[in-house]
Every structure is written in C-alpha cells, then in structure tokens.
Amino acid sequence: MRDERGFAALKTAAFDLGAEPALILDTGGFLVAANEAAEALFGQNLSLLARGSFVSALPPESVLGALIARCLDEERPVRERAIEITLPGHPGLSADAAAAPLGGGAVLLTLRVRQALTGSDSAGDVAGLRSVVGLGRMLAHEIKNPLAGIRGAAQLLRDGAAPADLQFAELIIEETERIRRLVDRMEAFSEDSAPTRSAVNIHRVLDRVMALAANGVADGLVLHAVYDPSLPPALGEEDQLIQVFLNLAKNAAEAAHARGDGRGEITISTAYRHGVKVRGHRSREGGGVLSAAPLEVRITDNGPGVPPTVRDCLFEPFVTTKANGTGLGLALVAKIVNAHGGMIDFESKAGRTAFRVLLPVAPVPAL
Predict the structure, then answer these.
(1) CB–CB of 63/84 below 8 Å?
(2) At the fourth CATH level, which superfamily is domain 4-116?
(3) Higher pLDDT, 367 or 105
(4) What superfamily would CATH give domain 198-359?
(5) Could you write out the three-class secondary structure of 286-355?
(6) Predicted confidence (pLDDT) at residue 32 exceeds the cutoff of 90
(7) 268-304: per-residue pLDDT in tens?
C-alpha cells in the first residue's frame, strides 16, 4: 500500500527541484507556491508578487494572462511559445509558457526562459552566438590568409600539372573554396553593429525571394503568395531581409522536396498583428527595450517537419538536420532578425512547418 504522506513529499520535492521555473496559482489568481528555479529567476520580486493577485499584476492584454484564462476555460493544458512576460519590479523576459489545470480553479504555470530583457544573454534561441562571434573573428584572421596561399599555390600547380595530376590540383582548389565559404559565413557573426534600417516594402523583398527560389531551390514546387496589401513599410535593411527570407525559403524548399511525391508546396504570407511587442536590438552599451513588431511574415512548407530532437535548439549554431549542413544558416537568420528588433519562431508537425518572422514598422516621416 502506498504511503500517501511519503508520496506527497516526493511530489513536493519534484516541484521544488524542477529545472524550469514553476508557479502555482489558486482560484483567485494568487501565487501560492513557487519552486527554487522560479525564486532564482524572480528573486526578491517574488515576495512582492505574492502579496496580491499574480494575474492582476500582469499588464492589460497580457499573453500570459490570456494563457492562464484559456487553461481554466478549456480545462486542459495549453502552451504559448516566445511570449514576453513583464511583471512589477522585474525587467521582463521572453519565455515559452505552459499552464495546466490542477483542479478547483488552481493552475500550474511553467516557464522555459528564452531571453532576459536586460541585455544579458540567457538560455534561448540565440544562446551561444556571442562565442561564435569571437570564433568568427579568430577564423577570419587565422585561416583566410594561409588559405589564400594554399589556393594560389594549387593554381600554379594546376597550370603546370600533368593530365593525370590535374584532378588533384582541382580538388585542392575546390576544397579551399569550400573552406573559404564556411569561414565567410562564420565571419558574418563577427559583425556586431546594428543594421542600417530604413523603410522597406516587405512585399518587394518577398517577391524577389520568390523569384530567386522559383528559379533555383524551389524549382518543381508549387509556390503561393498570400499578402496583406495594406501592410505599411517595414523598418529594416533590404539586403539583410532578403538574406533572411531566402534562407528560410531554401530550407522550406528542401523540406518540401523531401516528400518525394512531387506535391511539395511553399506558402509565403504576410499579416499585421496588433499589439505584438518584442525585445529591440541590444547595443554594446545598454540593454534591449520592448518595441512594437507587428509585421508578420510566415514561410510554410508541407514537408516532413522538424525532428523533435532539434526543435528546442534549432536556432543555435552548429545545429543541423542536414547530412552536409554547417548549422549556421538559421543561427545567422536569428541574429539578423534580432538585430532588426524582431523575433523568429516556428511551429512544426508532420506535413506542415511554418517559420514566423516579426518585424517593426517604419516610422511615418514628419510633415
């Protein structure tokens, strides 16, 4: 027969020692319990939150508040990815949140922190980028110069090589070019300055991406463009935005081709999402700030989906599902989007994967 008191103690210990911050709210939305991870995350502010209704302390139209309300209304666990959480006395954070009903109107709220909004990095989609910045600079300095010498020597050997040896000289040249391209991609991480942003017609950017994809990686696929023609201009650097969406379109095309049945499709859509705010670009001197980013671009494919084993770290450097991939493409995309004051996330299941990019609106020129 089970020892109920001992079992209850084990459940309490499991809650307290959980790796993710967890909170329990009662039927009135009051905070009644928090585990050690939550105490470490919120610090002294937790005692302030416990004095009144936790739910009432959330800002109006809070996504977290809506998540808790939906959990209670539907009486089932619900989740939201990459939401901004701001609480009194706390600088705020970006997190994946899950709410589960405990019965009697109580809710278990768990958070998976992506980023703090204070300028200090935390576990999340851009984790590790700072170290990659330093690695990119080191590679550019230490590898590019000798690599150019190797390539030059191989070209000289090729010019005077016997026909039987020509293939080896060509192999050296091709491999040095491949290494140079890899180093160039690593070096892209070392650029830490903010992009030069201006008003950009996002549909012109996407039309360019569609044209490039249709004549390249997406050849043989069905492409759909579902645009909201009323969208205002985005605030961004056009060339970098083309790079972002071309990379996402390339990945979508490869996924759609992987179906192998000739029915691959890609849809690029745009929309305006009222009230969406994300963390702005973080400078060297100060922390990021919340800024409006209501322009949404989605790139959706009907491929096999992102493997569950990499979903939590897909935007981190060197994470890839491709046999010959470097794992730098999506990490660089995340860095560029972050520098634009935007956000990128995704949702995936078998037969449908959608990457979503949120961008700020260009300010209206003063008259």
Answers:
(1) yes
(2) PAS domain (3.30.450.20)
(3) 105
(4) Histidine kinase-like ATPase, C-terminal domain (3.30.565.10)
(5) CCCCEEECCEEEEEEECCCCCCHHHHHHCCCCCCCCCCCCCCCHHHHHHHHHHHCCCEEEEEEECCEEEE
(6) no
(7) 999 998 766 665 444 333 344 456 778 999 999 999 9
